[in-house]
Amino acid sequence: MNLYNLPNTDLTVSGICLGAAPFGWYLEERDAFAQLDYFVASGGVFVDTAHSYGGKGTSERMVGNWMASRQNRRSIVLATKGGEDTGLKNYRTLHADEIAEDVEESLECLQTEYIDLYYLHIDDRTVPVAEIIDVLNAKAKEGKLRYIGCSNWGVDRIAAANAYAKKSGQMGFVANEIEWSLAVPNRPNTPDSTTWMDTAFLDYHRRTGMNVCAYSPQARGLFAKLEKLGAEGLNEGLRKTYLNSQNLETFERLKKLSAQTGDPVTVLTLAYICHQKKDFFTVPIVGCSSMAQLKECLAADACTLDPSMLECLAEGR
Prior knowledge:
Blueprint: E1 3-5, E2 12-14, E3 17-19, H1 29-41, E4 46-48, H2 58-70, E5 77-82, H3 96-110, E6 115-120, H4 129-141, E7 145-151, H5 155-167, E8 173-179, H6 199-208, E9 211-215, H7 222-229, H8 236-242, H9 245-261, H10 265-274, E10 282-286, H11 291-298, H12 307-314
Parallel strand pairs: 3-4, 3-10, 4-5, 5-6, 6-7, 7-8, 8-9, 9-10
Antiparallel strand pairs: 1-2
Helix pairs in contact: 1-11, 2-3, 3-4, 4-5, 9-12
């Protein structure tokens, strides 16, 4: 797998990041270990989890148990997320003491002394950015966080946080974990707490060069399921979130390109995100419910799309 420097850090990451969201929810520890082993054997080094995945700390514990059993912590670029508690009505826990507690809990679950990239999972606009940046930098000074990022934050809040960090001489967010795929979601039917790569975000990332780690880069398997089941076979969630004329037109272009290159639609969908490195650095995060899915996803790292192919796929976005 291709390796890259994550700009504005000293981290070397793989071209695809393995997402541990299925660990504990869909996969038992044995299967999680198998995926992690295969990912590393394929050249992967970048792993993404969250304190909320699998129920509080479950996914993190699986990743931590795996690193302990393989004794490979220092060869893994480890990302996790805090600031979210699914037991709360609004999910948000972003006051300084809550963030500090989340960091300590994640360190314990992951059985590590430090986290390479620590994201805040969901924003809480009632908490000043100064309070958030200050506590994250305090944890960084303790040697517990190497770099910090955000997920599901608005452009205005990201800009405000990084402006405060710069003014106060502290570390700002180096990466934004955001939904990004070839599919355009039907926004009224998506959670208010999530963000996706719309025009405003694209403009911001092009302007600032801020790194992107893209979650749901295959739109929860939308195009693969359209190919296999047709629009009428999609479950209610996919229909509400992604079924629209624009995505159906994109699917037709994917099918034509697949016939031309011989690459599966799923590989092309992910390869499109892998190629988004011109104006800012991007890594897709893949969460797989089976080993077969993982193997197909990793093939996208070696899939080459020329500029005309990328332009064709992006048409209408």
